[in-house]
Amino acid sequence: MAERLLEVNDLNVRFATEDGIVRAVEGISFELERGKVLGIVGESGSGKSVTAMTLMGLTRGVNARFEGEVLYKGKDLLKVSDADMQNYRGNELGMIFQDPMTSLNPVYRIGEQIVEAIQAHEKVDKRTARARTVELLRQVGIPNPETRVDSFPHEFSGGMRQRAMTAIALSCNPSILIADEPTTALDVTIQAQIVELINRLKDDFDSAVIFITHDLGVIAEIADEIIVMYAGRVVERGSKRDIFYDPQMPYTWGLLGSIPRLDRPRPERLHTIEGAPPSLINAPEGCKFRPRCPHAFEKCREEPGLENRVETPGHFDRCWLDVEYKRAHRDETTSPGGTVEAA
Amino acid sequence: MVAFLVRRSFGMIIVLLAVSFATYLIFFKIPGGDVAGRIAGKQATPANIADIRQKLGLDQNVFVQWWDMMKQLLTGSLISYYDGTNVVQQIKEGMPETFSLCIGAGIIWLGFGVLVGTISAVTAGGASDRAITALALIGISLPVAWLGLLLRYFFAGEGGAVAWFPDGGYVPLTTNPWQWFYHLLLPWFTLAILFIGFYGRVLRSNILDTINEDFVRTAKAKGLSSRRILVKHTLRASLIPIVTLFGLDFAAVLGGGAIITETVYSIHGVGYYAAQSIHQQDLPPLMGVTLYGAAFIVIFSTLVDVAYAYLDPRIRLT
Amino acid sequence: MATTGQEEFTLDTASELAAEESGSKIEGKSPWALAGRRLRRNYVALAFLAVFILVLLVCLLAPLYSSHVSHLKSDTPNAGGHITVNGQTIPILSKGSSKFNQNGSVELTPGGIPIGPQWGASGGAYFFGADGLGRDVGTRLLYGGRNSLLIGLSSAAITTVLSIVLALLAAYFGGATDWIISRFFDLIWAFPVILLGIALGTALSINGFNHGPIHIAPGSLWIPIGVIAFVFIPYIGRPLRGQILALRNREFVEASTAQGAGPLRIMFSELLPNIASSVLVLFTLIVANAILTEVGLSFLGAGVQPPHPSWGTMIADGQNVLASDPWLSLLPGIMITITVISLNVFGDGLRDALDPRAKVRIEH
Fold first, then answer.
1. Which residues of B fall within a CB distance of 8 Å from C336?
2. Is A88 on the interface with B (CB under 8 A)?
3. Which of B149, B158, B290 sits opposite C191 (nearest CB)?
4. How far C352 CA sits from the closest chain B CA (Å)?
5. Contact at CB, A120 and B223, closer than 8 angstroms
6. Which of A311, C130, C224, C300 is buried deepest, with most CB atoms within 10 A?
7. Contact residues, chain C, for B272 at CB < 8 Å
8. Distance CA B78, CA B290 (A)
């Protein structure tokens, strides 16, 4: 059993805004072991980014309130002082952000920005740091790293910038790499490259990865375990097999159904999930997905707990529907054109 | 870079020519009516007026007149209508005073403006931010003329209160450095207050905007110290617009724009000279001073662009 | 409740459920409504707006003050007059005196010093004292305020409208139009602002403006209004032009053109509303700066001409008697500062309402 690096227990994050209290994250729990990839999937506003940033302590502020625990190697990061948190960031926890153009400082060279990351945590001189930087750039697949190390961000293409960001995140050999929608701002072809890169680096650096996206197709490549988030809550959790072959939440079905598939007959229309995500200030009673769920019934007025309702242990969901019923009806949603009997 | 500078120089010359012609038009053509009559004054007889018209060549074509005046200016032989003094010479004499006033004030207002703006932004919402904002608001709301008079009244013995400072006037640096400094303190402060308030607010606003930028978030995610993030990332980005502002404001006052301060404190610099000549409707000095001022603005404009390109590698000089 | 309850379930449709829900939808509000709400909560900004309006009203009521309180006009000299204070008759401008001492030296008390503020001791007249020509400071303060505010507001309005038009034309049409307008901005900009203002102001103040059908008398207030409006054009015009240029390339403009909208429609229905919040904020700042500029110009003699009073001319008038009667210069300055601070604070509040920033602690 690999080392357990992260244990999140019943994390709640609330923000005070002029419109009221936003409950961005409600009761989320998960664990992460070394060498594993956890995928967090959800729409905008589901709380996935807030979760990631909270792990890094980037959501701390005057108007933020936290409850629960974020245990990294046994230490509760929520309680750690701001100064101490700086030691964790970059050093133990590395993060890649969504838009690499705006996430890199335009007035400093790429190499300078990586060297800065290294020197923030390790006592090395400029020369050593620079040499390491060139190596890092090579590892992330940037050609001619010796010259490119002195380029400015605007001289790189989108994919290369994201590779550079990855280099920054990994520069101090963090145990956990958090990637917040790293492919969303990139072309589809580049997306595949970045996913493959992260997969490879995970092994090279022996880190764990938290990969956040709204795209289930991307997650299929890389994740070992998947968490589906909706309205700040975990609504389904399980291994990759569980989620893709035996999804238990109508929301998950919707996500799966909206992926265009080449290996299935073409449907009349791609499935869309009707309605819009709920307000995080005035959330509806009971199951948060109920207003948009075509299968909702009386019991759904009471919020389901996250429980293991299927045979496979470790596969949790928040849905009152009978498992038989779900297995019978979900193909309407997940495979709108009909299924091909796959081997 | 060289090509850029050459192209800019051409542009500058054209602008200066346009400015001087415009100045000429302002005084001679815009008001309409009889120019010679205005210059001759209220008590003139028709003979006086005709005489002036002929002597100053006012009966000639506009362009010819203007060109004559430009020639004289550029060869340093331009003479005032009012008292026959040499314009270029007068400007030269005023320069040390204006420079002393403006350079000192400039250092003060840039330094304090940045300091005040940074503190205010870093403690945003807190007591020191509120205090600084209030003071800055007062600073930008004070009419310079009034501030100057107030300071003279309270601190320079005008009102018999205290005479901590001398009441205006200027002592050359070479004569007595301490007195030079002592006499300039109040004028420096007067000129700087408005700018400190303004720059402080602009910088505060820039910093608060920059703090929300993605690259600052990345800097935090790297685990850099708060100080490093502030100085190397936040300030570095926020100060760039201040550079532009300062370049132009400094150019403006250096070129004789501190007219009110110079007048209130009786500092006989270029601005003071400008004010006098405007009062006397004296066109030649006016031409000289306007061109002098415009030259500063135009040159500093180019300097600012070069600085900007240096500070932000995304900018290409065109 | 251990039973699963499937026996009773019915398939509700999403819309039926949604109809029953309360408070589960995210409601959108227009940016203007949001801004309005934020502004309404900003008591400080609103308070200062009230102060500005108060000053404006009081100055507009100058004629009332003149006829009912001070019983004096703003520009009638009264150098030789007298007033009655507590039963005594005092000259408005002091008479000098000389005293011969026994050792042959002479003590001279200068004359011509106007009386200071009476604070009501002589009825309403000379409440704030008299100026060098014996005129009532209080009345002049209000009339002067009226002039200064009128000039400030009008020139700001004119320059805003002109700048918007020029910026729209330049940014929308581009090409030669843009080149000409930008060079125009550059030319005005290259002039040292104060010099330009003073030059124009003085030149026009001697003979007025006489070209073609337009004849403006030299003492008219339109001259400082026009001068200040002209001088500020590039200060608004250039930033607006930059903003509109950025907007012009956005998709919504393209979409509008594709639907057959003509230039005028695009300029006024698409571009203008998007710069509206900038314009609003800029406008309050320009009014504040226009007032300060008018003060500066009038102080130097290039703005409002005698006998019209303005806060700037009053400060200039008081310079020479600063030591003996500081109130002459002090009072107009206080009025100016209060007015301009109010405008600036309100302008800040407006900017915060339209574009709020974090860092404000919210009660929770």
1. 141, 143, 146
2. yes
3. B290
4. 11
5. yes
6. C224
7. none
8. 14
So what's the pLDDT on residue C18?
A: 43
Write out chain A residues lying below 8 Å of B233, CB-based: 105
Among C184, C185, C186, C194, pick the best mutation site for testing chain B contact (most B Cβ within 10 A): C194
Strand partners, A16: A21
Which of A38, A30, A11, A28 shows the shortest CA–CA distance to A208?
A38
The three-point CA angle B248-B250-B251 to 5° equals 65
pLDDT digits (tens, 9 = 90+) for B70-110: 888 788 777 777 677 888 888 888 898 899 899 999 999 99
Q: What phi, psi does A66 have (nearest 5°)?
A: -120, 145
Pairing of strands C121-124, A225-230: unpaired
Residue B212 is encoded by which pair of tokens?
């929300």
Our CA-based measurement puts residue C336 at a distance from the nearest CA of chain A, in whole angstroms, of: 35
Residues with Cβ within 8 Å of C15's Cβ and at least 6 positions away in sequence, in order, are: A274
The mean pLDDT value for A107-136 works out to 93
Q: How far apart are CA B29 and CA B20, in angstroms?
A: 13
- In degrees and rounded to multiples of 5, residue B89 shows phi and psi of -60, -45
Say if CB B69 and CB B58 are below 8 A apart. no
Cα separation values, C165 from C6, C160, C182, C205, Å: 68, 9, 13, 28
**Residues of B within an 8 Å Cβ radius of A:** 125, 213-215, 217-226, 228, 232-233, 236-237, 311-314
pTM: 0.84
Determine which of C1, C12, C15, C34 to mutate to test the interface with A (most A C-beta atoms within 10 Å). C12
The dihedrals phi and psi of A110, each to the nearest 5 degrees, come to: -55, -50
- For B256, name the nearest residue in chain C, comparing CA atoms only: C192
Q: Is A10 left (phi over 0), alpha (psi -120 to 50) or beta?
A: left
pLDDT value, residue A78: 92
Residues of B in contact with C207 (CB under 8 A): 31-33, 38
Look at residue A153 and tell me whether its pLDDT is greater than 50. Answer: yes
What are the distances in angstroms from CA C47 to CA B136, C52, C58, C352? 19, 9, 16, 15
Name residues whose C-beta falls within 8 Å of residue B275's C-beta, 6 or more positions apart in sequence: B259, B262, B263, C198, C300
